Amino acid sequence: MSAATEITVHLGVHRTGTTALQRLLQRHADRLAAAGIGYLGPATLRGEELAGDLRAWTKARAAGHAPVPSPLTAECGRLVAAGCTHVVISEENLPGTMGPNLSRAELYPNAEARLADLSAALPVAPARIFLTVRDYPGYWRSSHAHALLAGDDADFDASRFAGAAGNSWMPLLCAIRATFPDARVMVARHRADRSFVPALAAAMVGPGPLAGVARPWTTVNASLPADVLDTLRRMPRGPDRARMAEAARRAGGPPLDPFSAAQTAALMARFEREWAAIGTGAVPGVEILALAEPEAAR
């Protein structure tokens, strides 16, 4: 793989419209390839063969004898051989998974080690890293609802999450900067409107390859009301359950909310202070990504 090849990494994170973005990029992978952009998303990265090879490679690396190149480098090389000079990687599990976040009431506590594995697996350092963050009550509310839908019935102590020191994106941002000191790190603030995902995609790949494509419905995995969640959790997984969930999302309705009004206000105030600090350079080398304003605001 040529060292001149550009790599863009999108870290997600969970519950920030990442699935909608990935579906948009995957749906138009041929368009991207025609523009010299190779896309690696969950469909490839979580595939049985590559995912298994990556786990084995990571384990071997920890033991000090990982083969070279890594499976991820080989996959990038395949795209380069097909004519792609820019490889875009999007996977929300790269900095960590939701399980530890919920169990520890902390945002991506294992990010430093996981990002180190990513750095070692890449063929070249990424030129750009995109991260989407969400306000704290929205993130925890959505993560809790998602976990319930997946069958995790663990109690959610709202007071614990509302007061947790782990309500901060700063450690993750610092881990990204420490691991990829030369990358341009751009942070977007999650919005649940139809203009957000196309604007983020255009920032990642340029406006040309996706010009004129249909805009995705961005609330692919949006949280559901408590009564709908309760009904779905009693249903076996399958097409009927999926259709009911999609219909409920399209219908809208207030999502399950474990927080009181006072807890939500305190969490939002904390997030707004941190967001302002990010915008004034609290983490050197991290910049806020200016995206098109919501359509409703135009």
Write structural notes for this entry.
This protein has helices at residues 18-27, 29-34, 42-45, 48-62, 71-81, 98-104, 111-121, 136-149, 158-162, 170-179, 196-205, 226-233, 239-251, 261-279; strands at residues 6-10, 37-40, 86-90, 128-133, 184-189, 286-288. The chain is an alpha/beta fold and 298 residues long. The protein has a 6-stranded parallel sheet, with helices on both faces.
Task: Give a quick rundown of the structure.
The protein is α/β, with parallel strands linked by helices and 298 residues long. Helices cover 48% and strands 10% of the residues. A six-stranded parallel beta sheet has the order 2-3-1-4-5-6, with helices on both faces.
Instruction: Name the shape in a single word.
Output: globular
Number of strands: 6
- Biggest beta sheet attributes: 6 strands, parallel
**What is the number of independent domains?**
1
Show the helix and strand layout.
Elements: E1 6-10, H1 18-27, H2 29-34, E2 37-40, H3 42-45, H4 48-62, H5 71-81, E3 86-90, H6 98-104, H7 111-121, E4 128-133, H8 136-149, H9 158-162, H10 170-179, E5 184-189, H11 196-205, H12 226-233, H13 239-251, H14 261-279, E6 286-288
Parallel strand pairs: 1-3, 1-4, 2-3, 4-5, 5-6
Helix pairs in contact: 1-11, 7-10
Primary descriptors:
alpha/beta, 6-stranded parallel sheet, 10% strand, globular
